[in-house]
Amino acid sequence: MELRSNEFKARAAANLGNEKLQKGLGLIKVKAVVNRANAVAEFGDFETLREAGKEIRNRALADLDLYLERFEREATARGAVVHWAENASEACRIVVDIAKQNGVKTAAKSKSMVSEEVGLNDALIEAGIEPIETDLGEYILQINDAEPPSHIVMPVIHKTAEDVADLFHAKHGTPRKTDPAALTREAREILRPKFLSADMGVSGANFLIAETGSTLIVTNEGNGRLCTTLPRLHVAITGIEKVVATLEDVSTLLRLLPRSATGQAITNYVSLHTGPKRLEETDGPQQFHIVLVDNGRSKLLAGEMREMLRCIRCGACMNHCPVYQAVGGHAYGWVYPGPMGNILTPSYVGLENAVALPNAATMCNQCGVVCPVKIPLPDLMRKLREEQMVRGLKPWTERAGLALWGWAAQRPALYALGTRIAVRFMKWLGGSEKLIHRLPLASGWSDGRDFPAPAGRTFRELYKERRT
Amino acid sequence: MSTRENILGRVRDALKRKVSPQDTASIDAHIAAHPLGMQPLRDWEPELRFRARAEALASTVEKVASLQSVPGAVARYLVVNNLPTGGICWPSLRKLDWIGAGLGMEDRPARGDDLVGVTGCFCAVAETGTLMFLSGPDTPAAASLLPETHIAIVEAARIVPFMEDAWALLRAERGSLPRAVNFVSGPSRTADIEQTVTMGAHGPYRVHIILVG
Ligand code: SF4
């Protein structure tokens, strides 16, 4: 996927005025957030469950090499073929090679963020293989000139039913309809024959189970099941960090993931795949390939961002993020939006290519509170900000400003004088409305909102007065 | 060096692994013991919980006394709901008297245009109102997936409290995993358009569960 993370500010500003997007984002607060809260309350002791989830993921990461080898051994013993991919291009090459060796013309895909991450669709198209996105949201994006998703769980959260109605009418040539049920039926009827004729199914994997060598996917639509049951080849592509130890471990994580993602106690379908079709079976793929992608993950394991590898891609952090809720997923400019993206994007594509992201947060810690595996997202963003400072990636105005502040703060008399002048100036700026419409040197702050003017005296002045 | 060795080498460096990678005792013990994780409080009786949960997920549930009564129950359900009285069933169910109940059930692999699919199940999970299916020659996965209406026969005695109990049953009865294990919790659905829940995305529009026992 094309990287546009350094355009965050411009795209965020544009999105603030995008009415359709704001409508979709508004629904997150009344639906996704509320549904999660209800599901969590209904469960009971969700805090202990989060702690258990964190431990399970930590255990897997602490012995990641051993669990991966065990997974590979078990999967291979059951007839799956395990491939390892260093980076995006290697991952694509592996999948394209499998497809070419088997004369594949069409590939039915169920939703996979890793396939977005490595840009698999473009690679398939280049090799003359037609990828067909089958998740309803991903299908809508694909027929809309391969638009990128704006959310990891709800990819078309930025579109209204009216948008989808126009798109289907234009692309399918069918009478225009706006009812979501009718639109869903239309997509089902168009995609069903494609499932039946696809040569290859491509899925992701929410988890890899070391004990049994199985891949696990969660879906609601059933497209994941179709992709992994009907075509003669199945390729599962996923990150090396997705491994967990046992079926029991994954059962605990399955109590966390759907509740955090959509407020469901369980997704409609949870499917485990262990090896290809057995003798005498009438369905299932003849070949089962598993592509394990590194693409920066082993580097993350070595550094301060290691806790991020616990992520189970539920999307709760973005649903609860005031910045995501305001600007939407496209502003983040890559596959992973919201707080998790603020860490993953700079980690995977380079801090210099995503300068704004670690700063695209209010540090309110809503994300840290809801994260089902207790990733301290704001702490990690803070560390990235520090690294930006050290590497000189902050704008010179910010660095100079902080240096000046540091210099003055070490000189109390001067500091007191400076702040006294500043608050009086700002009070004057605010005028009778007591609101500053435009802050000098900080227009980025005041362009989209008004800044409340200070009372005109510093805290230290007021404090001194109270004491005497 | 191969990509595999490079990746595993970097993982080992990151973990500052000192012991030899051949020493897998730390993970072997955990996998062998496969300890239970956290389960919710169990203040329910499994069959009642299963029914309540399955119904909350938009499945319908009825109960019959024995397997012999199943074809009659299937026929009633299909007629009452104005659905076709023919379709496919798992080969494992071919011996039931479908014809006697006025139904045309074929025990062949499901096709894309089949409208009714009748299956059994391996067991059911009470906590979430979930059915568990194991793929196999007599229990093909597509039968519960392609038809618009899925009817599942569940022995009441095989409703277990939690998913972990289903794994225990699988280990005890089968030893290893089949090609596909599918957990199904109600009709297929999507909420991709304006977060409006819509049934029948790519799988069945309706799931009817017949408890036996
Ligand atoms: S960081 Fe946590 S909340 Fe965000 S997607 Fe990952 S697991 Fe979910």
CATH architecture of the largest domain in chain A: 3-Layer(aba) Sandwich
What's the total count of β strands of chain A?
12
Helix content of chain B: 25-40%
**Biggest interface and residues each:** A-B, 101 and 74 residues
Mean pLDDT of chain A: 91
Strands in their spatial order, largest beta sheet of chain B:
1-12-7-4-2-3
> Which secondary-structure class do the elements of chain A indicate?
alpha/beta
At CATH level 2, the architecture of the largest domain in chain B is 3-Layer(aba) Sandwich
Order of helices and strands of chain B: HHHEHEEEEEEEHEEEE
Biggest pleated sheet of chain A: 6 strands, parallel
Radius of gyration of chain A: 25 Å
Number of structural domains of chain B: 2
Oligomeric form: heterodimer
**Total strand segments of chain B:** 12
Number of helices of chain B: 5
> β content of chain B, as a range?
15-25%
What number of structural domains do the residues of chain A give? 3
Using the alpha-carbon principal axes, give the shape of chain B. elongated
Cofactors and ligands present? iron/sulfur cluster
CATH class type of the largest domain in chain A: Alpha Beta
The proportion of residues forming helix of chain A, as a percent range, comes to: 40-55%
